[in-house]
Every structure is written in structure tokens, then in C-alpha cells.
Amino acid sequence: MKRAPVPVALLVLAIATVTACGGGESAEDKIVGVVEAAETTANPRNCTELQTQRFNEQVTQQSGKGATKACEAEVKEGPAQAKGVTVSNVSVNDEKATAEVAFKGGPLDSQTLDIALVEAEGDWKIDRVEGFAAYDGKALGAAFEKRFEEVPEGLSPRQAKCIARKVAESNEAEAEELFFGGSSEPIIKLAEGCA
User: Fold this and answer.
1) Which strands make up the sheet holding 96-104, listed edge to edge?
2) With the C-alpha atoms ordered 83, 165, 111, 34, is the resulting torsion angle positive or negative?
3) In this structure, are 47 and 84 located in the same domain?
4) CATH number at residue 94
5) Contacts with 103 (C-beta within 8 Å, 6 or more apart), sequence order
6) What is the pTM of this model?
7) Residue 9 within a domain
8) Rounded to an integer, what distance in angstroms lies between the CA atom of residue 65 and that of residue 161?
């Protein structure tokens, strides 16, 4: 028996229906993509499209629009991005998620962070660094020393080495307070000890 030809439009509709019922990107895939883009690309739009205001305030230690402007300026300034990241242990709970992010290169080289994300209008954004999932103070100090060699930020070589050494000597709780505590005071205090 000869089969009747199926109109191409019906085949397209059938494929589209199957894709709409479970195909496409999962929340986990979207989260991995957001984190990879935010941490490895130097695009000022990341500060608003891939990150929340809360995250910008946490990492820049500024508030309001000043945090977004500081984020955008930092992105434009230079090589603060990771060469690569590995995103693992993604856990999604409705419009909130957590993940671990392991960094390769950049100022967080060899560190793994616990991060929180939120979903708004179908888009995932990095909302907060919760802390270190795996901390290596020695590697963090070395990454800072390398960064200061590339971008001295007005520091003398002696000051840069001193700050990098103090970062390397910090325990995990001290490092979390320095970088994710939301206040510039611990960083200022550390730098003043190297003046």
C-alpha cells in the first residue's frame, strides 16, 4: 500500500509541538550560560542583564546606581574576567537557584564560589556570592600579585606584594569578609597596613 504524502507544514507543526513540550534549554542550562557569560566576558551590559543590583552592590561595595556604574567601569578597565569557569551543583527551587563556580584565570583563579541566582521574567541573574565552596588563599594571593603586575592601580611594587601576601595569609572567613562582605572597610584596613 502506498502512503499518502504528508504536507511539509504538518511535519513542521509536529516538530514544533514536540519541541515546545520539553525541548529547549532547561533552567540549569540557562544558569550555566548566564554564569559563563557574566564571568568570562567583558561586556558592561552584564552588569544589568546578567547580574542583579544586589550583586553589583556586594562586589563593588557601592549602593544604588553608583554600584551599576562602578561595575560597568570595572568591566571597561581591564582584564578582571576569568579565562574559564566550571559551573556545578546547580540547584533550582522555583525562581531561586544556587550553584558552585570554579574559576580558571583572573582574580579568582583556583577558587570555587557558592553563588545564588534569581529568575525574573524568565531570565536568570547572579544575585549574590554566598561564600567560598573551595578556598585556596595561596592561589588567591598569587592571582592578586599577578593582577597588580598587570594593572598596578597606583600601588608601588612593595605595596602590591604586601597586599597580595596579606590576601594569601587570610583564612576563608577573612577572605569572605574582604571580598563579599559588602563593605570596603576590611580592604581599606588591609591596604593601610601596607602603606
Assistant:
1) 84-93, 96-104, 112-120, 123-134
2) negative
3) yes
4) 3.10.450.50
5) 39, 82, 84, 85, 109, 110, 111, 112, 113
6) 0.82
7) no
8) 33
